[in-house]
Specification:
The structure holds two protein chains of two kinds.
Chain A lengths: L1 H7 L5 H11 L1 H20 L5 H26 L7 H16 L4 H29 L3 H19 L9 H7 L2 E2 L1 E5 H19 L1 H11 L1 H6 L4 H27 L9 H11 L12 H19 L5 H27 L1
Antiparallel strand pairs in A: 1-2
Helix pairs in contact in A: 3-14, 4-9, 4-12, 4-13, 4-14, 5-6, 5-7, 5-12, 6-7, 6-12, 8-12, 9-10, 10-12, 13-14, 13-15, 14-15
Chain B lengths: L2 H4 L7 H10 L2 H17 L6 H26 L7 H19 L1 H24 L5 H23 L8 H8 L1 E2 L3 E2 L2 H17 L1 H11 L1 H6 L4 H27 L11 H10 L11 H20 L4 H23 L3
Antiparallel strand pairs in B: 1-2
The chains are: A mainly alpha, B mainly alpha.
Chain lengths: 333, 328
């Protein structure tokens, strides 16, 4: 619709476009500014900070960033998925167990199979939510146990292996030493999967059911089907996050990491409303970067790294508090 | 409500059952509990008094954490900080008891828990932060600070005071766990307060219809601040029991009980959307979970299968509950 109005008003100049982009992505732009500030600060306290630091950060950010995207999609659709960490563990061990001793070509098939598995797992979550009519948080809480158990069923202890090309896919740099491959993979994955969905009819439906389920239903959106689809996308991105774990560590671990709760934190920090229907996937990714850089900075300052956990909690609460205050002020005005 | 007049004669009708499940969740839940125990009897090991006592003993701290979830869920909230707070109080007590003596150590631990609850309550009540986010943030803060404390003291929580061990593990005549001394009064107070006191009804009012509550002059923020302090204190007490029961204290001891505590409340018929439920159901819910865990363990299944079945039980019970109690 905005494209049509832009075409109708040829005099709308570049300044208007910039203004619109800023208005629509204010939160993300704020996060970008914050990232630049943190990077500047990091350079200040550790003049030698550079390529190695960014490379290290990128590879450790990848799994959580993908988990944050997974959480963002289901939260936008008005749900929440507490089983993301378990799905990651499950898909990671399946990938690692299958790839052990297999050829590099076979690994391609395995990666595809694992992604399909992610879709299937997400579909099961979504169908259960729709069929049982139990609140999302309860169903996915229970499925957390199921998928964690499934992971243990595949591998009792950390093990397996990662294909060489998968390992090389996320490790190191591309073209320029300042561009980590992990960041490129992240961008590509989001661009290939999420952007087409976002621009399609079903993407609009996802926002619609998250914003107002009844209104969406009355406008002819199939709420159940859209919800299952959103959960499938979440499963797919969780599987990607699980694959990235296998790729970066070279093994699969059947124990879920702290990803579920951190992904919720990143989603909220990234400007996605827990009430649904608002936000995007860029904000959560930026939030993950910020959380990681802050943790790095504390290490460089030789603070007890546990303060980073405290800081994460305080930032999470503080940002949401300020956000709520601003929103209340605006709605009152 | 109108259904009661039309279907009063046919007591086997769906409406009757629906009302039974909705208004008296204890009856069907107790039935389920008995069924599980019977299943257990049919399994390889047999039910005896000692097994029951051990199961009850393990269910007690879970039931106390379930109280935190029940109370907060009644107002439409949830408390994800209970595990971090419970671990923290157990750990703090174990590290302080050597220098300060048990009463002071317990008091300081509970004070720290109350402070965490107070901050959560202010965030949720005054600043209107979503309870999920507020308590999640609080659990990160508590966990981080507990870790900092651990590093500074260079001490692990091996020194669980013998008194806590007694309360957590010992049983009268091998059948009555000592922890009942703590649990029975606590449960009685919670059950009584929810049914008979103004504050208990305020919790239902705030959760059922916040707008109506506000228009009737309820100051929701005061209710919520008190609620989250109570929840944190309950979590703190549960933390003492966990430390005693496991005879160890660590900053992540209770982590694995967080999601089961939510499950206990949900299975017990408390709605996560607020305004409906009660504590009696949660107690039975905690027992059901504990018996399920014990049953699965006795069947000799590996950990993996146990977790899968555990999750499936939660989904099935919650789904059956929602189906049956839903207004048609």
């Amino acid at each position: 619709m905005s494209a049509a109005s832009a075409a109708a008003e040829p005099q709308s100049n570049a300044a208007d476009v910039v203004r619109r982009v800023v208005r629509n992505n204010g939160w993300s732009l704020g996060l970008v500014v914050f990232i630049v500030l943190i990077l500047g600060f990091t350079k200040l306290i550790l003049p030698s900070y550079g390529v190695t630091g960014i490379q290290g950060a990128a590879i450790s950010i990848l799994p959580l960033a993908l988990a944050a995207v997974a959480q963002a999609i289901v939260v936008i659709a008005g749900g929440i998925d507490l089983s993301i960490g378990s799905i990651m563990a499950f898909t990671s061990v399946v990938a690692a167990a299958l790839m052990k001793g297999q050829s590099e070509e076979m690994a391609v098939l395995i990666v595809i199979a694992v992604l399909l598995l992610g879709l299937l797992v997400g579909a099961i979550n979504g169908i259960l939510v729709v069929l049982t009519r139990v609140p999302d948080i309860v169903v996915t809480l229970a499925m957390l146990f199921v998928w964690a158990g499934a992971a243990l069923l595949v591998l009792r202890t950390p093990g397996g292996a990662s294909a060489d090309w998968l390992h090389k896919l996320v490790l190191g740099e591309l073209f320029n030493e300042w561009i980590p491959k992990a960041a490129v993979v992240m961008l590509l994955v989001v661009a290939i999967i999420w952007i087409p969905v976002r621009r399609s009819r079903v993407g609009l439906s996802i926002y619609a059911i998250g914003s107002n389920q009844l209104a969406a239903f009355r406008s002819g959106v199939s709420v159940a089907r859209t919800k299952v689809f959103a959960y499938m996308l979440t499963g797919l991105f969780s599987a990607l996050a699980g694959l990235s774990l296998t790729a970066s560590t070279g093994i699969g671990a059947p124990v879920p990491g702290p990803y579920t709760l951190l992904s919720v934190a990143a989603v909220v920090l990234g400007g996605v409303s827990l009430a649904g229907g608002r936000g995007g996937v860029l904000g959560p990714i930026l939030a993950v970067i910020i959380l990681r850089l802050l943790r790095d900075d504390m290490t460089f300052l030789r603070w007890d790294p546990n303060y980073a956990t405290v800081a994460e909690g305080a930032i999470l609460v503080g940002v949401v508090m300020i956000g709520t205050l601003v929103q209340n002020r605006r709605s009152r005005a | 409500m109108t259904a009661s007049t039309t279907t009063a004669s046919t007591w086997l009708s769906a409406g009757t059952w629906r009302r039974l499940f909705r208004d008296k969740p204890l009856i069907p839940l107790s039935g389920l509990l008995v069924l599980l125990v019977v299943l257990f009897e049919l399994g390889p090991s047999s039910v005896n008094v000692n097994w029951m006592a051990v199961t009850v003993r393990a269910a007690i701290p879970l039931a106390i954490l379930g109280a935190c979830q029940t109370l907060t869920m009644l107002t439409g909230g949830i408390d994800l900080s209970v595990a971090a707070i419970a671990s923290m109080t157990g750990f703090l007590t174990a590290t302080l008891v050597g220098d300060l003596g048990l009463p002071t150590a317990l008091a300081i631990s509970l004070g720290a828990a109350a402070l965490a609850g107070l901050i959560s309550g202010i965030g949720i009540g005054v600043f209107r932060v979503h309870p999920l986010i507020m308590t999640l943030g609080m659990s990160l803060i508590v966990l981080g600070l507990a870790n900092v404390w651990q590093v500074q003291r260079r001490q692990t929580g091996a020194g669980v005071p013998p008194e806590l061990r007694e309360v957590g593990i010992r049983m009268f005549a091998d059948i009555l766990p000592y922890s009942l001394i703590i649990f029975v009064p606590l449960a009685a107070i919670i059950l009584f307060s929810l049914r008979r006191t103004g504050y208990g009804r305020l919790l239902y009012a705030v959760g059922d219809n916040p707008v109506a509550a506000r228009l009737s002059g309820v100051k929701a923020w005061q209710v919520l601040i008190v609620l989250y302090v109570i929840s944190a204190l309950l979590a703190g007490i549960a933390g003492f029991l966990y430390a005693g029961l496991n005879n160890t204290a660590s900053v992540s001891l209770v982590d694995s009980a967080l999601l089961p505590s939510v499950a206990a409340a949900v299975i017990g018929g408390t709605s996560i959307l607020g305004g409906r439920g009660g504590y009696a159901g949660t107690i039975v819910g905690a027992l059901i979970l504990q018996v399920t865990i014990s049953l699965l363990a006795s069947l000799g299944y590996p950990e993996a299968v146990r977790q899968i079945l555990f999750g499936s039980v939660i989904v099935l019970v919650a789904a059956a509950y929602t189906r049956v109690t839903e207004e048609s």
